[in-house]
Amino acid sequence: MSALLALSALFLQATPVCGVDEAERTRLMALNEDAFDQDMQGGWRAVANQGPDCFVTAAELIQDYVALHGAENLEQPGLAHWHAGQMFAMAGETERALPELRLSYKPASDNPMDAMWNSYADGTIAFLERDREALIAARDALPDRPMSNRGVLDGLINCWDRPMMEAYQQDCRTGEVN
After folding, report:
1. Which of 54, 77, 111, 134 maximizes the CB count within 10 A of its CB?
2. What is the chain's alpha carbon radius of gyration, rounded to the nearest angstrom?
3. Residues 128, 172: Cα–Cα separation, whole Å
4. Does 9 have pLDDT greater than 80?
């Protein structure tokens, strides 16, 4: 069995998935949280930006990052879980997406931004669980203003019969769908 594991490790080193070999993985894991999660051309996003075939790899890198650094040590662990969930959802791996998305919920507070986030998460989860009524209720709980993510949920409603990767796109949000 150990020979099989050694062979698997050797194969992974020789065959990088989405450009992530062991050296790149080590580099990514060493990034600070902002560079790993928020750099639109770096961190996990550089992997995801290679295309849909790399979404699962990006999600698994995020999970590894959270596990390595500890959610309790991250400034925004919920956001990291959210992004992992998004990547799994975009790849069509709903069962892997849902637990990650649920870990993004904000605790109850007086902050209206937290309540808006939770409604957005509720709507996204409802879309993935195919609960249209819950999706509409979550969208209706959001104010119709920028930064509320109401437009994203409108897109999921407008493109209800499409996969997440399509329904999340701008043309679904504006209702300009074919």
Report:
1. 54
2. 18
3. 16
4. no
pLDDT tens by residue, 119-128: 999 999 999 9
Closest CA to 84 of 106, 107, 105, 61: 61
- What is the residue extent of each domain of the chain? 1-104, 105-178
User: What's the whole-number mean pLDDT along residues 86-102?
Assistant: 98
Type of residue at 20: V
